[in-house]
Amino acid sequence: MGAQEDDKSSIIDDPNSTTNGVGAGGATDLPAIQILTLLEKAKFYTSLFLGTMAILAVFGFLFLIPFVVEPAITTILADFSPHPVACCTSAATRCHQLRVNYSRMPYDEFITKPLGSVAWDVTDTKFYINTEGCGYPPRVNCSVFAKEFGRSNMGKIIPCFYSRTYPGTVVSRYSWNQNLRHLVLAIVIPILIFVISLAVLFYWHCTPMKSCGGPGRNLIDKYSRKEDILAEDEFEEDEEEY
């Protein structure tokens, strides 16, 4: 009896013993059920996060349509000249509204000609700060735009970009690459987030051959062999006869 009690006490006092749930090195060995519970919680919160991201991606895309996608498509359809041409401010009215004359001759070539030797192709047309015609500081500042091209620089030759589709539209800055990049990013990023989020959610919660959200068994597991299918059909026929 004394030897058995000594053995029990040695097991309890042994720091390397796993009887009390403590393994070698003092690390706690979690039961398998606790590990599964943690995994289920992680899966739940990850699914919640992905679902939220998918919803935000949809709203983000809808938000970007009027502010990025539509202006970018309009700019592409306007077909602005890829190279700057020569412009001259002809009038500056209130609210930073500027009007210019412009020649379709490239700006670099125009400035080499004597002033007045080249006639303007379009006169007294609206001059916009960018292809959208608007914006917000600091990227777009109408006051700076007015000072740069307004009354103080009346008659000065400046580079500008005109629309070959709408000749009456002239802008002070334009970049095909930047416009295309904004359009692609505004379309691809929300769609990519939405697709990836849904793909992961479907992979976790809607396995193949199984109805999504239902407890139905996998058909492959239910009918593992052809003989099982035939046997079940024969059983159903026998029941109908009786």
UniProtKB/TrEMBL annotation:
Keywords (alphabetical) are:
Membrane, Transmembrane, Transmembrane helix
Q: Give yes or no: UniProt keyword Transmembrane helix.
A: yes
Compositional bias (Basic and acidic residues) spans? Answer: 1-11
**Chain segments carrying region Disordered:** 1-23
- Pfam families given in the database record: TipE
Recorded GO CC terms: plasma membrane
Molecular function in Gene Ontology: sodium channel regulator activity
User: Which Gene Ontology terms describe the biological processes this protein takes part in?
Assistant: regulation of sodium ion transport
Q: Which residues cross the membrane?
A: 48-69, 183-204
> Is Transmembrane helix one of the keywords UniProt gives this record?
yes
What's the name of the protein?
Answer: Protein tipE
